[in-house]
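Chain A, query sequence.
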Amino acid sequence: MELPQHWPLPQAAPLRDELAAAYADPSRRYHDTRHLTEVLVRLDELAAAGTPFDTTPVQLAAWFHDAVYDGERDAEERSAAWAEDALAELCPTELAAEVARLVRLTETHTPAEDDRNGCALSDADLAILAAPAARYDEYAAAVRVEYSHIADDEFRLGRAEVLRGLLAKPTLFHTDYAREHWERPARANMERELAGLG
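Chain A, predicted structure.
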């Protein structure tokens, strides 16, 4: 899938290409180029609806948020460290720090309610949960492939725990637009998947 033109640092095309290559790694099944593209498109959707956030750091954080993905728990931290290192000489210190902070936030998706940038990125990253049923099923199947090293029974237990944890939240999303448009279909998708896990 071709990436949309959402790279906010035109002077740093080689870095964009390096990140694009990371997402295009054939070992990835969900956290891939399509996922990055969908996150960027959802950010466009939020912006078009009037959701306030700072475009440049949030777009950059979207590019970096799964730059490292290998199923290990510290992938977000390593992605954030990559952002800090790569952006140090390309943009102001404050911008690089904000990008790294946002990338780290995608580990928990729990931004403060007044964190406009964090709320926008978190919602765009989780928007897959509200996808049409067929796309959601593709996502769930792709996640299973990414964790193919885990036995079926163990995976089902772990996945069910993740889904129950998400469903137990008062709201999945943090922006007004996402709560209005994505909350209900996301919960329906997850409840359907959970029921299928037995």
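The domain at 10-196 is CATH 1.10.3210.10 (Hypothetical protein af1432). The first helix runs from residue 13 to 23.
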